[in-house]
Amino acid sequence: MLSGIDHLVIAVPDLEVARKNYEALGFTVVPGGRHPVGTHNALVAFGDGSYVELIAFYETNPAHKWWAPLQKGGGLVDFCMQTDDLRGDTAAFRKAGVEIDDPSPLSRVRPDGYRLAWVLSIPRGDHRGVAPFLIQDETPRAERVPRQTTHANGVTGIGAVTVAVRDVAPVARWYAEVLRRQAQPIQRPELDGAGVRVTVGSHTLDFVAPRSSAGPLGEWLAARGASPYAATFHGPKPGTLDPAKTCGARLTLV
Fold it and tell me: Which residues does 170 contact at the CB level (< 8 Å), separation at least 6?
């Protein structure tokens, strides 16, 4: 069963620059470590149990799922959902029509030498970034997620993720079948779009299609394809974070 957003993925060209930028925005950024697939990361953990992963490549890897989005500008490129039944939820998404791989292992070595291990199910092709990738830990999750969850800017957790899609109907069917409840219709006039809203745990997913190709979502889809467009965080002072500091991610405090 899905329990909420595990983490958001923000792809950046230079991890050290990204770390400094996010610290300047008032976030506590913790070094994450290295994956054996040519990536390394830094993490921003929140009191609601979720986190943001800032990820960069220390080796060229065009086969990696986030390499191509990074070449197109990076920023918010994917989102991961927590599950207590990885195989069951993978099968449920597949039955609903999502192209998704079987669970496969991955690991990361923290700077202190601790080796973290987990299992992932990753959507393929155009379904990637619209359907979540799923994670189940083999080592304790408390070791994967930083314990430092307080931030100078007062952010306490992830609010919502907006995902740009061309066609809302099939995506609504995916989530209705997996979650066993219908998505709620929404209007997003500020984006000149409409779509559906799905709530999982304390987090919200908005899947929004443009009304015209000239609006912001139409332009995004032409450049980046169906993929995460923006995210909100819960914080004491509403406002949009400086895009020059967020490494291309559209992030807002609400």
Answer: 97
> Same structural domain for residues 17 and 140?
yes
105 and 210 housed in the same domain: no
- Count of structural domains within the chain: 2
- 19 lies in the same domain as 133: yes
Q: 72: domain CATH number?
A: 3.10.180.10
In this structure, which amino acid lies at residue 10? I
CA–CA separation, 182 vs 173, rounded Å?
8
On whether the CB atoms of residues 163 and 220 are closer than 8 A, the answer is no
For 188-243, what is each residue's pLDDT tens digit?
999 999 999 999 999 999 999 999 888 999 999 999 999 999 999 999 999 999 99
Given 3-state DSSP classes, what are the helix, strand and coil percentages for the chain, each rounded to the nearest 5?
Answer: 20, 40, 35
Pairing between β-strand 251-253 and β-strand 227-234 as defined by DSSP bridges: parallel
Q: What is the pTM of this model?
A: 0.97
The range of the structural domain enclosing residue 73 comes to: 2-144
Please count the helices (runs of H) and the strands (runs of E) in the chain: 6, 15
User: Sign of the CA dihedral 163, 103, 36, 111?
Assistant: positive
Q: Say if CB 9 and CB 76 are below 8 A apart.
A: yes
Which of 101, 117, 144 represents a domain boundary (last residue)? 144
